[in-house]
Automatic annotation (TrEMBL):
<keyword id="KW-0644">Prostaglandin metabolism</keyword>
<comment type="similarity">
    <text>Belongs to the NADP-dependent oxidoreductase L4BD family.</text>
</comment>
<dbReference type="GO" id="GO:0047522">
    <property type="term" value="F:15-oxoprostaglandin 13-reductase [NAD(P)+] activity"/>
</dbReference>
<dbReference type="InterPro" id="IPR036291">
    <property type="entry name" value="NAD(P)-bd_dom_sf"/>
</dbReference>
<keyword id="KW-0443">Lipid metabolism</keyword>
<keyword id="KW-0276">Fatty acid metabolism</keyword>
<dbReference type="GO" id="GO:0032440">
    <property type="term" value="F:2-alkenal reductase [NAD(P)H] activity"/>
</dbReference>
<protein>
    <recommendedName>
        <fullName>Prostaglandin reductase 1</fullName>
        <ecNumber>1.3.1.48</ecNumber>
        <ecNumber>1.3.1.74</ecNumber>
    </recommendedName>
</protein>
<dbReference type="InterPro" id="IPR011032">
    <property type="entry name" value="GroES-like_sf"/>
</dbReference>
<dbReference type="InterPro" id="IPR041694">
    <property type="entry name" value="ADH_N_2"/>
</dbReference>
<dbReference type="Pfam" id="PF16884">
    <property type="entry name" value="ADH_N_2"/>
</dbReference>
<keyword id="KW-0963">Cytoplasm</keyword>
<keyword id="KW-0597">Phosphoprotein</keyword>
<keyword id="KW-0379">Hydroxylation</keyword>
<dbReference type="GO" id="GO:0005737">
    <property type="term" value="C:cytoplasm"/>
</dbReference>
<dbReference type="Pfam" id="PF00107">
    <property type="entry name" value="ADH_zinc_N"/>
</dbReference>
<comment type="subunit">
    <text>Monomer or homodimer.</text>
</comment>
Length: 305
């Protein structure tokens, strides 16, 4: 018998999440049956969507939603032998029994030099979101000017680097001077701290006097209203997220939305840098989640068990 730890939503968040909104419970798992596996969490993801989706998809008492990289530690399913790694959407749990239908195997040819945690970051959902938004939504072209906000985060940092690789001029905004320096190191052309800028409108205009061809929107709310008039004719906007609104108790005006090998190659060639903000310990899941929402992370926020 394995006793699993699980973080539940004790009560729905009101505004910014608090430590007392979470509850750590223990649950005894059943012995896996034929076709099933027992998973042990190795890295867990904390992502912005957990805040708005907790409101719409979860009841109080439910285990927090989320993905993790887990190791198979017992197996009665030949597709997932003991020792292999998978991505599972089983939530904030240390262990879980399930069948293979819900699991994505970590590729058997995963390069040794690339940390498995990137399956939750640049090689996973955030990285592929960045690539999809740039290529399929913005259809970005060489020579164009792109704006990305939350630029030092999991999605934003990949967006800016891919756009540079494609020969674009990239403007990024982030919330600390350390993030600004990091983005300059990554090769962004113009970067500013939106929290200390005297005027967001002027900083955006100074960074791109002829306006923006593409806008990769991660923040929403007032930020997007300021960007709109600075879009060029035939400009394209990938509305990816609206983190500035996720903790609102009263609605603001503004937008609210409801190729893996390629990424390996770019990382191994040193063209795509993937910083991670790693918090240690399953017990620190709520702190890691709240830290990410308030901007503590440079790159992808993950928890290492
Ligand atoms: N549509 C889709 O499929 C997906 C959408 N997303 C969206 O992309 C966005 C970024 O996600 P992700 O890269 O995972 O997260 P990040 O790693 O970027 O972490 C969140 C960051 O958001 C910034 N932030 C927090 N509050 C505000 C605010 N009020 N105004 C501006 N910035 C703020 C903080 O950085 P700072 O210090 O710069 O403020 C923080 O570090 C989110 O909106 C998310 O919902 C993500 C994945 C998939
Ligand atoms: C108003 C919320 C906008 C959030 C944008 C965002 O960050 C989206 C991220 C998703 C993420 C969602 C994860 C779980 C929810 C499952 C929804 C369901 O119908 O089952 C991930 O699935 C991929 C991103 O697109």
């Amino acid at each position: 018998m394995v006793v699993s730890k699980a973080w539940t939503l004790r009560q729905h968040f009101q505004g910014f999440p608090k430590a007392s909104d979470f509850h750590l419970r223990e649950e005894t798992l059943p012995q896996p049956k034929n076709g099933q596996v027992l998973l042990e969490a190795v890295f867990l993801s904390v992502d912005p969507y957990m805040r708005p989706y907790s409101q719409t998809m979860m009841k109080e008492g439910d285990v927090m939603i989320g993905s993790q990289v887990a190791k198979v530690i017992q197996s009665y399913n030949p597709s997932f032998p003991v020792g292999c790694h998978v991505v599972s959407d089983c939530g904030w749990r240390s262990h879980w029994v399930c069948d293979g239908a819900e699991l994505t195997p970590v590729l058997p040819d995963w390069p040794q030099d690339i940390p498995l945690s990137l399956a939750l970051g640049a090689i996973g959902m955030p990285g592929l979101t960045a690539l999809y938004g740039l290529e399929e939504v913005c259809e970005i072209k060489k020579g164009e000017t792109l704006l990305v906000n939350a630029a030092a985060g999991a999605v934003g940092s990949v967006v800016g680097q891919i756009a540079k690789i494609k020969g674009c001029r990239v403007v990024g905004c982030a919330g600390t001077d350390t993030k600004v320096s990091y983005l300059k190191e990554l090769g962004f052309d113009q970067v500013f701290n939106y929290k200390t800028a005297t005027s967001l409108e002027e900083s955006l205009r100074e960074a791109a006097p002829h306006g923006y061809d593409c806008y990769f929107e991660n923040v929403g709310g007032k930020f997007s209203s300021v960007v709109m008039p600075q879009m060029r004719e035939y400009g394209r906007i990938a509305v990816c997220g609206s983190i500035s609104m996720y903790n609102d108790t009263t609605p603001q005006t503004g937008i609210l939305l409801s190729k893996t090998n390629k990424m390996f190659v770019l990382i191994l060639q040193g063209k795509l840098r993937c910083n991670e903000h790693i918090t240690s310990g399953f017990n620190n899941m709520p702190a890691a989640f709240m830290g990410m929402l308030q901007g503590d992370n440079i790159g992808k926020a993950v928890v290492k068990v």
